[in-house]
From TrEMBL:
Residues 380-494 form the GOLD domain. GO terms for cellular component: cytoplasm. This is GOLD domain-containing protein. InterPro entries: GOLD_dom, SEC14/CRAL-TRIO_domain.
C-alpha cells in the first residue's frame, strides 16, 4: 500500500475548517461547530493517516493555554473540547503516541487539577473528572508488564530480598504523573504490597524494622510528601504548588493501602524512629483526607501512646504531639466517646500533664508548616521520575521561567555509576537542538558547567536563583561512557515568588 501524500485535499480542508471553528469557538463562545468537526475526524481518521499532522500536540497546547484564561467562557469551551477529543479513542491514541506526549499529558493533568478546585459543584466538574479519569485509565495497560516484574520479585524474595523495593521504586518513578502514581498505589499495588508485608512478618523483629523502614520511605516520598515553602534572605517567599494536596483526598481507598503498613509498625512501639514517621503520615492523612478521620481514631490514639511511653521525656516532639492531642479533644470531627477515651487513657498521661496541654493549643500554628529560610533549605530528596540514559547519550529537561528571582530545585541519584550534570540558559527555542554543551556558543550560557557527579554514592540536592526569565535546560550527560547506560532517579521543581 502506498503512503498517503504529505498534504492531502481532505487534510487541507480540515486544516482550514479546524482553524475557522476554533476561532468561532473562542470569539463567539460557540462549541457546537468544533464538536461536530471532532466527530467527523473521529470517523475519517481511520482512513487518513496524515490527519495526525492536524490533530497534533500543538492543538492540545493551544487549548491548554485557554484553561488559564481570565475569560470563563474560554475556559469552559477548552474543557469541553478537550473532553471531546480525549473521548475519541482513535484520536486520543494518535495524540498520545506522538513525540512529547508524556510531558503534554502531565501539564494537562496539572492544569485540570488547578481548575478542579475552582470549579467544584459547577457544570464543568463532570467534564474535568472525566478528563482526569481518562488520563489515568490509558496508563493501566502500559503498566501490566511492570506489575508482572514485581510479582516475579516477590517469588525471588528469599534469594534477593531487596529486589521488590527496587522494582517498586522504578515502577512508581516511571509513571508519567503523580495521578498515575496514586492510581497504581491505590489499586493495583495493594495486593502485592500486602503479600510483601506477609513475608516480612515471618522475619525476626530486627529484620522487620529494616524492611519496614525501606517501604515507609517509598510511602513518604511518592504518596504523602505534600508541601514545600521556603523564604530567602531578602524575605521573598517561594512555594511549589504540589498537586498531591488536591488529589489525595479523592483516592477513596488510600487508607486501605497505608493501613497494612501502619498496623505493622504500630505494634513495634519501642522503634521510636518508625513511630515518629508513622505519626507524621497519620497526621497527613488526617489533614488532607477528612473522610478518613473516623477510621483514624484507633491509629491516632495508639501512635500517641507509643510516643508518650517511649519518646525521650525532654524531646521537642512532645510539644507538637501534646498540642495536636489537645486539638483532637476539642475537635468537632470526633464524638464524645473518643474524646473521653483520650482524656482517660493512662498511657497518654504525660502528654495531658505537660504545659502545652492548654487552650493556647487551639491557636497554635503547626511548626511543620512554617517557612524555613533559603539558607537552611532542606527539601527531602524525592525522586518521582526515572529514566535510563543510554551509553554515549544525554538526557535533558527544559523549562520556562516566567518570573525573575525564581528558584530551580533539583535532586537526583544514579544506580552504580556517576553522571555529568549541568544547568544552561538558552536564548531561543532553536537552541533546544544544540548538542555540544561543553562550549558556550550560539547564545547558550552555562549557569552550572557540566561536571561529573558521584551521584551513585549519595543523593545530590541543589538549588539556584534564576534572576532572568527565559528558557533553561538541565543536562544529565552520559556521552563520555561508551559502554554503560545509567539509571537516573530525579526530581526537578521550579519555585516562583508569590
Amino acid at each position: 500500500m502506498s503512503e498517503s501524500p504529505l498534504i492531502t485535499p481532505l487534510l487541507q480542508q480540515y486544516q482550514v475548517e479546524l482553524q475557522t471553528k476554533l476561532n468561532e469557538c473562542f470569539e463567539n463562545n460557540e462549541v457546537k461547530g468544533i464538536l461536530h468537526l471532532i466527530d467527523q475526524l473521529g470517523q475519517d481518521i481511520k482512513d487518513e493517516p496524515q490527519l495526525q499532522d492536524l490533530l497534533n500536540l500543538q492543538l492540545l497546547r493551544k487549548l491548554m493555554k485557554h484553561l488559564s484564561s481570565t475569560n470563563p467562557q474560554q475556559v469552559r469551551s477548552s474543557i469541553i473540547i478537550l473532553d471531546a477529543i480525549m473521548q475519541r479513542k482513535i484520536i486520543a491514541n494518535r495524540l498520545l503516541h506522538q513525540r512529547g506526549a508524556e510531558r503534554t499529558m502531565v501539564d494537562l493533568a496539572n492544569s485540570l487539577l488547578n481548575l478542579q478546585q475552582q470549579l467544584r459543584h459547577t457544570s464543568l466538574e463532570f467534564h474535568i473528572d472525566e478528563l482526569l479519569i481518562g488520563l489515568q485509565v490509558k496508563y493501566v495497560d502500559k503498566k501490566q508488564s511492570d506489575l508482572s516484574v514485581l510479582k516475579q520479585a516477590l517469588k525471588q524474595f528469599q534469594d534477593n530480598n531487596s529486589l521488590f523495593i527496587k522494582q517498586l521504586q522504578i515502577l512508581l518513578s516511571s509513571c508519567e504523573s503523580i495521578i498515575d502514581q496514586y492510581y497504581l498505589f491505590g489499586s493495583h499495588l495493594q495486593e502485592l504490597i500486602y503479600e510483601y508485608l506477609l513475608m516480612i512478618r515471618q522475619m525476626e523483629e530486627k529484620q522487620q524494622v529494616n524492611f519496614l523502614t525501606q517501604l515507609l520511605g517509598i510511602y513518604e516520598r511518592y504518596i504523602l510528601d505534600v508541601q514545600y515553602t521556603i523564604q530567602d534572605m531578602q524575605q521573598r517567599t517561594y512555594y511549589i504548588k504540589i498537586e498531591k494536596q488536591m488529589i489525595l483526598h479523592q483516592i477513596s481507598n488510600m487508607y486501605k493501602s497505608c493501613a497494612q503498613l501502619l498496623n505493622m509498625i504500630l505494634v513495634l512501639p519501642e522503634e521510636i524512629g518508625l513511630q515518629k514517621r508513622t505519626y507524621l503520615i497519620i497526621k497527613v492523612l488526617y489533614k488532607y483526607i477528612p473522610g478518613l478521620r473516623i477510621a483514624l481514631m484507633g491509629p491516632l490514639q495508639l501512635v500517641m501512646r507509643n510516643l508518650s511511653l517511649f519518646l525521650h521525656k525532654d524531646a521537642q516532639e512532645y510539644k507538637e504531639i501534646t498540642i495536636f492531642l489537645y486539638q483532637l479533644i476539642h475537635s468537632s470531627d470526633y464524638d464524645d466517646k473518643f474524646k473521653q477515651s483520650l482524656l482517660e487513657d493512662e498511657d497518654l498521661a504525660y502528654l495531658r500533664e505537660n504545659k502545652y496541654f492548654s487552650v493556647k493549643a487551639l491557636s497554635y500554628v503547626d511548626e511543620s508548616q512554617s517557612v524555613p529560610s533559603l539558607r537552611n533549605l532542606n527539601i527531602q530528596a524525592a525522586f518521582p521520575c526515572y529514566v535510563i540514559i543510554q551509553a554515549a547519550s544525554i538526557y535533558s529537561y527544559s523549562f520556562m521561567v516566567d518570573k525573575p528571582n525564581s528558584l530551580i530545585f533539583w535532586s537526583f541519584r544514579t544506580l552504580d555509576y556517576d553522571v555529568s550534570f549541568g544547568l544552561f540558559k538558552l536564548q531561543t527555542i532553536e537552541d533546544l537542538g544544540i548538542i555540544d554543551y561543553l562550549n558556550e556558543k550560539n547564545g547558550v550560557k552555562s549557569l552550572i558547567k557540566l561536571q561529573r557527579i558521584e551521584s551513585h554514592k549519595q543523593p545530590i540536592i541543589g538549588v539556584t536563583v534564576i534572576s532572568n526569565p527565559g528558557l533553561y535546560r538541565i543536562i544529565f550527560d552520559n556521552s563520555y561512557s561508551y559502554l554503560r547506560s545509567k539509571q537516573l532517579f530525579y526530581s526537578i521543581h521550579l519555585l516562583e515568588t508569590k
